[in-house]
Known about the structure:
- The protein is α+β, with helices and mostly antiparallel strands.
- It folds into three domains: 1-121, no CATH class; 218-340, Cathepsin D, subunit A, domain 1, CATH 2.40.70.10; 352-481, Cathepsin D, subunit A, domain 1 (Beta Barrel), CATH 2.40.70.
- It has 17 helices and 24 strands.
- The strands form four sheets. It has a six-stranded antiparallel beta sheet with strand order 2-13-12-23-24-14. A six-stranded mixed β-barrel has the order 4-5-10-6-9-8.
- A hairpin with an 8-residue loop joins strand 7 (267-277) and strand 8.
- Helix 4 packs antiparallel against helix 5 and helix 5 packs antiparallel against helix 6.
- The radius of gyration is 25 Å and the shape is globular.
Amino acid sequence: MNFRITTTLFLLILVLFTASCNKTPDEEKLPFDELTLNALNRGDLRFAITRIDSLMRAHPANNYLKYFYGTILVNHGSEKVFDLIDTLKSSGDTVYSGLLELHIDVMIGDRSAKEKLERKLKEFPSNNELKLLEWIVRLDNGEFEYAENTLNEIRELTPLKYLPLLAMYYHSYDRDYKTALKYLSMLRNETIYKKEKDFNRLSFLQNRTIHYGFDSSFTVKYEQCGAQPGMPFITENGITLKMGFDTGTNGYNFTIHRKSLGDSLKGTQLYNIEKGIQYNYMKEPVDVIGKLVDFKTPRIDNFLVEYFDGGLSIADGVFSPLLFNAAITINSKDEIVMIHNKESLEKYINGLKQGEYTTVPYKVRKGWMFIPCEVKGKKVEMIIETGSRDVNLNALAVKRLGIETYEGSLKWRGEDYPVTKLDTEIKIGNFTYTVAGGLKSKFVLGNLGCGLACAGDIGPDFIRNYIFTIDPFNRQIILEKL
Protein backbone atom coordinates (compact mmCIF):
# COMPACT_ATOMS: atom_id res chain seq x y z
CA MET A 1 0.00 0.00 0.00
CA ASN A 2 2.75 2.42 0.98
CA PHE A 3 4.61 1.49 -2.22
CA ARG A 4 1.52 2.33 -4.32
CA ILE A 5 1.07 5.68 -2.56
CA THR A 6 4.75 6.50 -2.98
CA THR A 7 4.62 5.55 -6.66
CA THR A 8 1.49 7.64 -7.24
CA LEU A 9 3.02 10.67 -5.54
CA PHE A 10 6.22 10.26 -7.56
CA LEU A 11 4.28 10.14 -10.84
CA LEU A 12 2.23 13.20 -9.83
CA ILE A 13 5.38 15.17 -9.01
CA LEU A 14 6.94 14.06 -12.33
CA VAL A 15 3.87 15.24 -14.29
CA LEU A 16 3.83 18.59 -12.50
CA PHE A 17 7.58 19.05 -13.07
CA THR A 18 7.26 18.18 -16.76
CA ALA A 19 4.36 20.58 -17.17
CA SER A 20 6.32 23.39 -15.51
CA CYS A 21 9.29 22.80 -17.80
CA ASN A 22 7.17 22.62 -20.93
CA LYS A 23 4.58 25.33 -20.55
CA THR A 24 2.64 26.09 -23.65
CA PRO A 25 2.89 29.59 -25.15
CA ASP A 26 -0.57 30.38 -23.73
CA GLU A 27 0.56 30.08 -20.11
CA GLU A 28 3.14 32.87 -19.92
CA LYS A 29 3.01 36.58 -20.60
CA LEU A 30 5.57 39.14 -21.73
CA PRO A 31 6.12 41.52 -18.77
CA PHE A 32 6.79 44.63 -20.88
CA ASP A 33 6.33 48.15 -19.59
CA GLU A 34 5.38 51.09 -21.80
CA LEU A 35 8.98 52.12 -22.51
CA THR A 36 9.95 48.64 -23.68
CA LEU A 37 6.83 48.26 -25.82
CA ASN A 38 7.37 51.63 -27.45
CA ALA A 39 10.98 50.70 -28.31
CA LEU A 40 9.89 47.35 -29.77
CA ASN A 41 7.07 48.93 -31.79
CA ARG A 42 9.43 51.47 -33.36
CA GLY A 43 12.28 49.02 -33.99
CA ASP A 44 14.64 50.59 -31.44
CA LEU A 45 16.02 47.16 -30.64
CA ARG A 46 19.26 48.29 -29.01
CA PHE A 47 17.29 49.97 -26.24
CA ALA A 48 14.64 47.23 -26.14
CA ILE A 49 17.19 44.44 -25.78
CA THR A 50 18.79 46.23 -22.82
CA ARG A 51 15.36 46.38 -21.17
CA ILE A 52 14.61 42.73 -21.97
CA ASP A 53 17.98 41.66 -20.50
CA SER A 54 16.94 43.27 -17.22
CA LEU A 55 13.49 41.68 -17.38
CA MET A 56 14.98 38.20 -17.92
CA ARG A 57 17.03 38.64 -14.74
CA ALA A 58 13.92 39.78 -12.88
CA HIS A 59 11.81 36.89 -14.31
CA PRO A 60 14.27 33.97 -14.61
CA ALA A 61 11.49 31.35 -14.89
CA ASN A 62 9.68 33.07 -17.78
CA ASN A 63 10.75 30.97 -20.75
CA TYR A 64 8.32 32.78 -23.05
CA LEU A 65 10.33 35.96 -22.45
CA LYS A 66 13.54 34.12 -23.35
CA TYR A 67 11.87 32.78 -26.48
CA PHE A 68 10.71 36.24 -27.57
CA TYR A 69 14.22 37.60 -27.01
CA GLY A 70 15.58 34.72 -29.08
CA THR A 71 13.31 35.56 -32.04
CA ILE A 72 14.86 39.05 -32.13
CA LEU A 73 18.36 37.53 -32.12
CA VAL A 74 17.37 35.26 -35.02
CA ASN A 75 15.90 38.13 -37.04
CA HIS A 76 19.27 39.87 -36.86
CA GLY A 77 21.40 36.80 -37.50
CA SER A 78 23.00 36.63 -34.05
CA GLU A 79 24.51 33.27 -33.12
CA LYS A 80 23.92 34.16 -29.45
CA VAL A 81 20.54 32.51 -29.96
CA PHE A 82 22.23 29.10 -29.72
CA ASP A 83 23.39 29.90 -26.15
CA LEU A 84 19.81 30.80 -25.33
CA ILE A 85 18.55 27.52 -26.81
CA ASP A 86 21.09 25.60 -24.69
CA THR A 87 19.92 27.51 -21.59
CA LEU A 88 16.30 26.60 -22.29
CA LYS A 89 17.14 22.95 -22.91
CA SER A 90 19.23 22.69 -19.74
CA SER A 91 16.23 23.94 -17.74
CA GLY A 92 14.18 21.07 -19.17
CA ASP A 93 12.34 23.12 -21.79
CA THR A 94 11.47 21.38 -25.04
CA VAL A 95 8.81 23.80 -26.32
CA TYR A 96 10.48 27.19 -26.71
CA SER A 97 13.89 25.79 -27.60
CA GLY A 98 12.26 23.85 -30.44
CA LEU A 99 10.37 26.93 -31.62
CA LEU A 100 13.58 28.95 -31.74
CA GLU A 101 15.18 26.24 -33.86
CA LEU A 102 12.21 26.58 -36.22
CA HIS A 103 12.79 30.36 -36.44
CA ILE A 104 16.42 29.66 -37.36
CA ASP A 105 15.35 27.18 -40.05
CA VAL A 106 13.12 29.85 -41.60
CA MET A 107 15.91 32.41 -41.37
CA ILE A 108 18.38 30.26 -43.30
CA GLY A 109 15.77 29.35 -45.91
CA ASP A 110 15.37 25.69 -44.92
CA ARG A 111 12.86 24.33 -47.46
CA SER A 112 11.36 21.97 -44.85
CA ALA A 113 10.60 24.84 -42.44
CA LYS A 114 7.23 25.70 -43.98
CA GLU A 115 5.82 22.25 -43.21
CA LYS A 116 7.28 22.37 -39.68
CA LEU A 117 5.72 25.80 -39.17
CA GLU A 118 2.28 24.51 -40.19
CA ARG A 119 2.56 21.67 -37.65
CA LYS A 120 3.64 24.02 -34.86
CA LEU A 121 0.77 26.42 -35.58
CA LYS A 122 -1.68 23.54 -35.15
CA GLU A 123 0.04 22.64 -31.87
CA PHE A 124 0.21 26.26 -30.61
CA PRO A 125 -2.57 28.14 -32.46
CA SER A 126 -2.43 31.23 -30.23
CA ASN A 127 1.35 31.79 -30.42
CA ASN A 128 1.64 35.26 -31.95
CA GLU A 129 5.32 34.89 -32.85
CA LEU A 130 4.46 31.86 -34.97
CA LYS A 131 1.57 33.73 -36.60
CA LEU A 132 3.95 36.55 -37.50
CA LEU A 133 6.47 34.06 -38.87
CA GLU A 134 3.78 32.41 -41.02
CA TRP A 135 2.69 35.81 -42.35
CA ILE A 136 6.27 36.62 -43.39
CA VAL A 137 6.75 33.22 -45.04
CA ARG A 138 3.54 33.66 -47.06
CA LEU A 139 4.64 37.14 -48.13
CA ASP A 140 8.02 35.75 -49.18
CA ASN A 141 6.32 33.01 -51.20
CA GLY A 142 4.54 35.59 -53.33
CA GLU A 143 1.28 36.22 -51.43
CA PHE A 144 1.68 40.00 -51.52
CA GLU A 145 -2.06 40.79 -51.71
CA TYR A 146 -2.74 38.53 -48.71
CA ALA A 147 0.00 40.31 -46.76
CA GLU A 148 -1.41 43.72 -47.68
CA ASN A 149 -4.94 42.74 -46.65
CA THR A 150 -3.81 41.34 -43.28
CA LEU A 151 -1.11 43.91 -42.47
CA ASN A 152 -3.05 45.75 -39.76
CA GLU A 153 -4.24 42.47 -38.24
CA ILE A 154 -0.73 41.02 -37.95
CA ARG A 155 0.65 44.28 -36.54
CA GLU A 156 -1.94 44.11 -33.77
CA LEU A 157 -0.61 40.71 -32.71
CA THR A 158 3.05 41.62 -32.21
CA PRO A 159 5.02 44.12 -30.13
CA LEU A 160 7.39 44.31 -33.13
CA LYS A 161 5.03 46.55 -35.10
CA TYR A 162 7.88 47.86 -37.27
CA LEU A 163 8.65 44.39 -38.59
CA PRO A 164 5.67 43.79 -40.94
CA LEU A 165 6.19 47.27 -42.42
CA LEU A 166 9.85 46.51 -43.05
CA ALA A 167 8.92 43.22 -44.73
CA MET A 168 6.30 44.93 -46.92
CA TYR A 169 8.83 47.56 -47.95
CA TYR A 170 11.43 44.97 -48.97
CA HIS A 171 8.96 42.97 -51.05
CA SER A 172 7.17 45.95 -52.62
CA TYR A 173 10.50 47.11 -54.11
CA ASP A 174 10.29 44.22 -56.55
CA ARG A 175 6.82 45.27 -57.74
CA ASP A 176 7.07 48.99 -58.47
CA TYR A 177 8.75 52.09 -57.07
CA LYS A 178 5.48 53.79 -56.06
CA THR A 179 4.39 50.90 -53.82
CA ALA A 180 7.88 50.75 -52.33
CA LEU A 181 7.71 54.47 -51.53
CA LYS A 182 4.28 54.00 -49.91
CA TYR A 183 5.56 51.42 -47.45
CA LEU A 184 8.85 53.19 -46.86
CA SER A 185 6.88 56.35 -45.97
CA MET A 186 4.84 54.35 -43.44
CA LEU A 187 8.04 52.87 -42.05
CA ARG A 188 9.62 56.31 -41.69
CA ASN A 189 6.54 57.77 -39.98
CA GLU A 190 6.12 55.01 -37.41
CA THR A 191 9.61 53.61 -36.73
CA ILE A 192 13.28 54.54 -36.35
CA TYR A 193 13.95 53.13 -39.85
CA LYS A 194 14.42 56.30 -41.90
CA LYS A 195 16.41 54.91 -44.88
CA GLU A 196 17.09 58.41 -46.12
CA LYS A 197 19.02 57.31 -49.23
CA ASP A 198 16.23 54.99 -50.40
CA PHE A 199 13.51 57.53 -49.66
CA ASN A 200 15.16 60.31 -51.65
CA ARG A 201 15.79 58.00 -54.60
CA LEU A 202 12.27 56.58 -54.63
CA SER A 203 10.77 60.06 -54.43
CA PHE A 204 12.32 60.79 -57.83
CA LEU A 205 11.67 57.35 -59.34
CA GLN A 206 8.13 56.61 -58.14
CA ASN A 207 6.55 57.11 -61.57
CA ARG A 208 9.20 55.18 -63.53
CA THR A 209 9.13 51.47 -64.35
CA ILE A 210 11.80 49.20 -62.89
CA HIS A 211 12.58 46.99 -65.89
CA TYR A 212 13.76 47.68 -69.43
CA GLY A 213 12.92 45.37 -72.33
CA PHE A 214 14.64 44.48 -75.62
CA ASP A 215 12.86 43.75 -78.89
CA SER A 216 15.68 41.64 -80.29
CA SER A 217 18.48 39.33 -79.18
CA PHE A 218 22.17 40.03 -79.56
CA THR A 219 25.65 39.11 -78.39
CA VAL A 220 28.34 41.36 -76.89
CA LYS A 221 31.88 40.86 -75.68
CA TYR A 222 32.46 39.36 -72.23
CA GLU A 223 34.42 41.64 -69.91
CA GLN A 224 36.30 40.51 -66.80
CA CYS A 225 35.82 43.14 -64.08
CA GLY A 226 38.11 41.98 -61.31
CA ALA A 227 36.42 38.86 -59.92
CA GLN A 228 33.09 39.84 -61.49
CA PRO A 229 31.87 38.99 -65.00
CA GLY A 230 30.81 42.00 -67.06
CA MET A 231 29.90 43.47 -70.43
CA PRO A 232 30.34 46.76 -72.33
CA PHE A 233 27.70 49.45 -72.80
CA ILE A 234 28.18 52.10 -75.52
CA THR A 235 26.37 55.42 -75.20
CA GLU A 236 24.80 57.33 -78.09
CA ASN A 237 27.76 59.74 -78.10
CA GLY A 238 30.25 56.84 -78.37
CA ILE A 239 31.52 56.41 -74.79
CA THR A 240 32.17 52.78 -73.86
CA LEU A 241 31.47 51.72 -70.27
CA LYS A 242 32.94 48.54 -68.81
CA MET A 243 30.24 47.37 -66.39
CA GLY A 244 30.30 44.42 -63.98
CA PHE A 245 27.27 42.23 -63.30
CA ASP A 246 26.24 42.72 -59.68
CA THR A 247 23.49 40.36 -58.58
CA GLY A 248 23.96 41.61 -55.02
CA THR A 249 23.16 45.25 -55.74
CA ASN A 250 19.82 45.93 -54.08
CA GLY A 251 17.43 48.36 -55.70
CA TYR A 252 18.04 47.56 -59.41
CA ASN A 253 20.91 50.00 -59.89
CA PHE A 254 23.16 50.87 -62.83
CA THR A 255 25.97 52.83 -61.21
CA ILE A 256 29.17 54.45 -62.53
CA HIS A 257 31.73 54.84 -59.78
CA ARG A 258 33.61 57.80 -61.26
CA LYS A 259 31.90 61.19 -61.27
CA SER A 260 34.00 62.67 -64.09
CA LEU A 261 32.94 59.78 -66.37
CA GLY A 262 29.29 60.25 -65.45
CA ASP A 263 29.53 63.99 -66.12
CA SER A 264 30.82 63.25 -69.64
CA LEU A 265 27.68 61.29 -70.56
CA LYS A 266 25.13 63.15 -72.61
CA GLY A 267 21.67 63.12 -71.01
CA THR A 268 19.07 64.76 -68.78
CA GLN A 269 19.90 65.03 -65.08
CA LEU A 270 17.04 63.88 -62.83
CA TYR A 271 18.49 64.40 -59.38
CA ASN A 272 21.52 64.99 -57.19
CA ILE A 273 21.03 63.34 -53.80
CA GLU A 274 23.36 64.41 -51.02
CA LYS A 275 25.08 61.39 -49.41
CA GLY A 276 22.70 59.23 -51.42
CA ILE A 277 24.76 56.08 -52.03
CA GLN A 278 27.30 53.80 -50.37
CA TYR A 279 28.79 50.48 -51.46
CA ASN A 280 30.55 48.03 -49.13
CA TYR A 281 34.04 49.10 -50.24
CA MET A 282 33.30 52.77 -49.39
CA LYS A 283 33.96 54.25 -45.95
CA GLU A 284 31.02 56.65 -46.05
CA PRO A 285 28.09 57.64 -48.28
CA VAL A 286 28.67 60.15 -51.07
CA ASP A 287 26.48 62.34 -53.30
CA VAL A 288 24.87 60.52 -56.23
CA ILE A 289 23.58 61.99 -59.50
CA GLY A 290 20.83 60.36 -61.57
CA LYS A 291 20.84 60.99 -65.32
CA LEU A 292 18.79 59.65 -68.26
CA VAL A 293 21.17 58.42 -70.97
CA ASP A 294 20.60 56.92 -74.45
CA PHE A 295 22.65 53.80 -75.34
CA LYS A 296 23.23 52.40 -78.81
CA THR A 297 24.74 49.10 -77.56
CA PRO A 298 22.53 47.68 -76.25
CA ARG A 299 19.77 49.90 -77.69
CA ILE A 300 18.07 51.60 -74.72
CA ASP A 301 16.59 55.10 -74.56
CA ASN A 302 16.15 57.18 -71.41
CA PHE A 303 18.11 54.66 -69.34
CA LEU A 304 18.68 55.70 -65.73
CA VAL A 305 22.40 55.93 -64.91
CA GLU A 306 23.54 56.87 -61.41
CA TYR A 307 27.09 58.05 -60.82
CA PHE A 308 29.33 59.26 -58.02
CA ASP A 309 32.94 59.28 -56.85
CA GLY A 310 33.49 55.83 -55.40
CA GLY A 311 37.02 54.82 -56.38
CA LEU A 312 36.18 51.48 -58.02
CA SER A 313 39.15 50.49 -60.23
CA ILE A 314 38.21 47.07 -61.64
CA ALA A 315 35.46 48.50 -63.88
CA ASP A 316 33.65 51.73 -64.68
CA GLY A 317 30.72 50.55 -62.58
CA VAL A 318 28.27 47.75 -61.84
CA PHE A 319 24.65 46.97 -62.65
CA SER A 320 21.90 44.55 -61.73
CA PRO A 321 21.11 42.10 -64.57
CA LEU A 322 17.54 42.02 -63.20
CA LEU A 323 17.09 45.54 -64.56
CA PHE A 324 16.31 44.03 -67.94
CA ASN A 325 13.24 42.09 -68.96
CA ALA A 326 15.53 39.78 -70.90
CA ALA A 327 17.54 36.64 -70.28
CA ILE A 328 21.31 36.98 -69.99
CA THR A 329 23.83 34.21 -70.69
CA ILE A 330 27.33 34.76 -69.29
CA ASN A 331 29.89 32.60 -71.09
CA SER A 332 33.40 33.28 -69.78
CA LYS A 333 34.89 30.38 -71.78
CA ASP A 334 33.94 31.83 -75.18
CA GLU A 335 34.14 35.39 -73.78
CA ILE A 336 30.65 36.39 -74.87
CA VAL A 337 27.47 37.63 -73.22
CA MET A 338 24.17 36.80 -74.94
CA ILE A 339 20.99 38.81 -74.41
CA HIS A 340 17.81 36.84 -75.19
CA ASN A 341 14.21 37.82 -75.67
CA LYS A 342 11.67 35.10 -74.84
CA GLU A 343 11.66 33.46 -78.29
CA SER A 344 15.45 33.47 -78.54
CA LEU A 345 15.77 31.92 -75.08
CA GLU A 346 13.37 29.09 -75.95
CA LYS A 347 15.50 28.21 -78.99
CA TYR A 348 18.64 28.37 -76.85
CA ILE A 349 17.22 26.03 -74.20
CA ASN A 350 15.94 23.59 -76.82
CA GLY A 351 19.50 23.33 -78.17
CA LEU A 352 20.99 22.26 -74.82
CA LYS A 353 21.97 18.61 -74.32
CA GLN A 354 20.42 16.56 -71.54
CA GLY A 355 22.87 15.93 -68.70
CA GLU A 356 25.00 18.91 -69.73
CA TYR A 357 22.89 21.49 -67.91
CA THR A 358 20.68 21.93 -64.87
CA THR A 359 18.08 24.48 -63.81
CA VAL A 360 17.19 25.93 -60.44
CA PRO A 361 14.39 28.38 -59.58
CA TYR A 362 15.14 31.77 -58.06
CA LYS A 363 13.24 34.33 -56.04
CA VAL A 364 13.99 38.04 -55.74
CA ARG A 365 13.98 40.26 -52.66
CA LYS A 366 14.68 43.97 -53.24
CA GLY A 367 16.74 43.15 -56.31
CA TRP A 368 18.70 40.30 -54.70
CA MET A 369 18.49 36.82 -56.20
CA PHE A 370 18.10 33.68 -54.04
CA ILE A 371 18.29 30.03 -55.11
CA PRO A 372 17.76 26.71 -53.28
CA CYS A 373 20.95 24.77 -52.55
CA GLU A 374 21.49 21.48 -50.76
CA VAL A 375 24.08 21.66 -47.97
CA LYS A 376 24.69 18.78 -45.56
CA GLY A 377 21.52 17.08 -46.77
CA LYS A 378 19.28 20.12 -46.21
CA LYS A 379 17.83 22.42 -48.85
CA VAL A 380 18.43 26.03 -47.89
CA GLU A 381 18.37 29.35 -49.74
CA MET A 382 21.53 31.15 -50.79
CA ILE A 383 22.03 34.47 -52.54
CA ILE A 384 23.84 34.67 -55.88
CA GLU A 385 26.33 37.48 -55.22
CA THR A 386 28.74 38.26 -58.06
CA GLY A 387 30.35 40.96 -55.94
CA SER A 388 31.35 38.48 -53.22
CA ARG A 389 34.09 35.83 -53.10
CA ASP A 390 33.62 32.10 -53.60
CA VAL A 391 31.11 30.88 -50.99
CA ASN A 392 30.20 32.36 -47.61
CA LEU A 393 27.93 30.71 -45.07
CA ASN A 394 26.54 32.78 -42.20
CA ALA A 395 26.98 31.86 -38.54
CA LEU A 396 23.37 30.68 -38.08
CA ALA A 397 23.64 28.29 -41.03
CA VAL A 398 27.09 26.97 -40.07
CA LYS A 399 25.90 26.02 -36.59
CA ARG A 400 22.45 24.74 -37.59
CA LEU A 401 23.76 22.65 -40.50
CA GLY A 402 26.65 21.24 -38.45
CA ILE A 403 29.45 22.46 -40.70
CA GLU A 404 32.96 22.17 -39.26
CA THR A 405 35.19 25.25 -39.42
CA TYR A 406 38.85 26.13 -38.97
CA GLU A 407 40.81 29.33 -38.49
CA GLY A 408 42.71 30.93 -41.36
CA SER A 409 43.52 34.27 -42.93
CA LEU A 410 42.40 36.32 -45.90
CA LYS A 411 44.33 38.97 -47.79
CA TRP A 412 42.38 42.21 -48.19
CA ARG A 413 43.93 45.41 -49.54
CA GLY A 414 47.41 44.01 -49.05
CA GLU A 415 46.91 42.90 -45.44
CA ASP A 416 46.15 39.52 -43.84
CA TYR A 417 42.95 39.32 -41.81
CA PRO A 418 41.99 36.41 -39.50
CA VAL A 419 38.89 34.58 -40.74
CA THR A 420 36.97 31.40 -40.01
CA LYS A 421 36.99 29.01 -42.97
CA LEU A 422 35.04 25.91 -43.99
CA ASP A 423 35.06 23.10 -46.53
CA THR A 424 31.82 21.55 -47.75
CA GLU A 425 29.81 20.60 -50.82
CA ILE A 426 26.82 22.43 -52.28
CA LYS A 427 24.34 20.77 -54.62
CA ILE A 428 22.60 23.17 -57.02
CA GLY A 429 20.06 21.51 -59.26
CA ASN A 430 21.80 18.32 -60.43
CA PHE A 431 25.34 19.73 -60.10
CA THR A 432 27.57 19.46 -57.04
CA TYR A 433 30.10 22.19 -56.28
CA THR A 434 33.02 21.64 -53.89
CA VAL A 435 33.76 24.51 -51.52
CA ALA A 436 37.38 24.62 -50.35
CA GLY A 437 38.26 27.47 -48.02
CA GLY A 438 34.82 29.05 -47.92
CA LEU A 439 34.14 31.63 -45.23
CA LYS A 440 31.94 31.76 -42.15
CA SER A 441 30.35 35.19 -42.04
CA LYS A 442 28.59 37.01 -39.22
CA PHE A 443 26.58 39.08 -41.68
CA VAL A 444 23.26 37.73 -42.94
CA LEU A 445 22.28 38.96 -46.40
CA GLY A 446 18.65 39.23 -47.40
CA ASN A 447 15.67 40.63 -45.52
CA LEU A 448 17.69 41.21 -42.38
CA GLY A 449 15.57 42.47 -39.50
CA CYS A 450 12.27 40.96 -40.59
CA GLY A 451 13.12 37.29 -40.13
CA LEU A 452 13.88 36.11 -43.66
CA ALA A 453 17.33 35.82 -45.13
CA CYS A 454 19.42 32.90 -46.33
CA ALA A 455 22.20 30.49 -45.42
CA GLY A 456 24.94 32.42 -47.23
CA ASP A 457 26.10 33.70 -50.59
CA ILE A 458 27.64 32.19 -53.71
CA GLY A 459 30.20 34.34 -55.50
CA PRO A 460 31.84 34.78 -58.91
CA ASP A 461 34.32 31.90 -58.49
CA PHE A 462 31.34 29.55 -58.65
CA ILE A 463 29.82 31.32 -61.67
CA ARG A 464 33.06 31.04 -63.68
CA ASN A 465 32.79 27.25 -63.48
CA TYR A 466 29.66 27.26 -65.67
CA ILE A 467 27.91 28.95 -68.55
CA PHE A 468 25.45 30.91 -66.46
CA THR A 469 22.01 32.09 -67.65
CA ILE A 470 19.54 34.26 -65.77
CA ASP A 471 16.07 33.47 -67.16
CA PRO A 472 13.47 36.00 -65.88
CA PHE A 473 10.71 34.54 -68.07
CA ASN A 474 10.73 31.25 -66.13
CA ARG A 475 12.33 32.65 -62.96
CA GLN A 476 15.22 30.20 -63.10
CA ILE A 477 18.99 29.96 -63.34
CA ILE A 478 20.45 27.68 -66.03
CA LEU A 479 23.90 26.20 -65.41
CA GLU A 480 25.80 24.52 -68.25
CA LYS A 481 28.97 22.51 -67.96
CA LEU A 482 31.98 24.17 -69.58
